[in-house]
Amino acid sequence: MPATTNTPIPARQRILDTANRLFYGEGLRATGIDRIIAESGVAKMSFYRHFPAKRDLIVAFLERRRREWIDWFRAEVDARLAKKGAGLEVIADAMDSWFAQSDFRGCTFANTVAEGAHGEESIARVVADHETDIATYVEEVAGRLGLSRPGEVAEAVAVVMEGLVVRAQITGRYGDPAIGRMLLRGIAREHARTRPKS
C-alpha cells in the first residue's frame, strides 16, 4: 500500500476557511482579525501579506460565498425542474432544503447589509453581484418555463425568496414549505403566456 502524504493547506485557504466559518456563524463585526489569525494557525505577517485589511478578507469571503451559493442553488433548482410537471414552485423546495441545514444562519449578503458593511464600495459590489446572479438565473428559469416578462418574474421571486429567508432566520424554522410554493405558483400563473379563463 503506497504511503499517504498530508498536503499542507495553503495559508490563504486556511484563513478563508476560518473566516467563512466565523463571519457566517458569528458575524463580521463580532469576529476580529486576531481570532481569525489564531484559529487559522497562520503568522500575523502571513495574514497581512494575503489580506492587508479586514475589508479585503470580507470581500474574499463574500466572493467565495457568492460562488458557492449560486452553484448550489442552480444545482438544487435544476434537479427539481428535471421532474415532470415541475414549475417555478421548486424554488421554495430548494430554499427549504437550505433552511434545514444545521449551519443555516440566514443570507450572508442580507446579514452583511444589516451589519452596515455594505457601505464599503468593494463590499457593496459583491452584494449587488449576488443579487444579479440570482436574478439572471431566475430569468433563465422563467424562460425555460415559457413565462412572460422574465425580468418581472425574477423581481417577484426575489421578494418571495427574501421573505422566506427572513422568516426562517427570525423564527428559527421555515414552517410549511407549501406557503412558498403557493406564492411562486401565483407568480407563474400571473406570467403564463396563455392565462386560463376565469
UniProtKB/TrEMBL annotation:
Gene Ontology molecular-function annotations: DNA binding
Record carries keyword Transcription regulation: yes
Keywords on record: DNA-binding, Transcription, Transcription regulation
DNA-binding region: 32-51
UniProt cross-references to Pfam families, sorted A to Z: TetR_N (PF00440)
SUPFAM superfamilies for this protein: Homeodomain-like, Tetracyclin repressor-like, C-terminal domain
Domain HTH tetR-type: start-end pairs: 9-69
Name of the protein described by the UniProt record: TetR/AcrR family transcriptional regulator
Organism name: Luteibacter yeojuensis
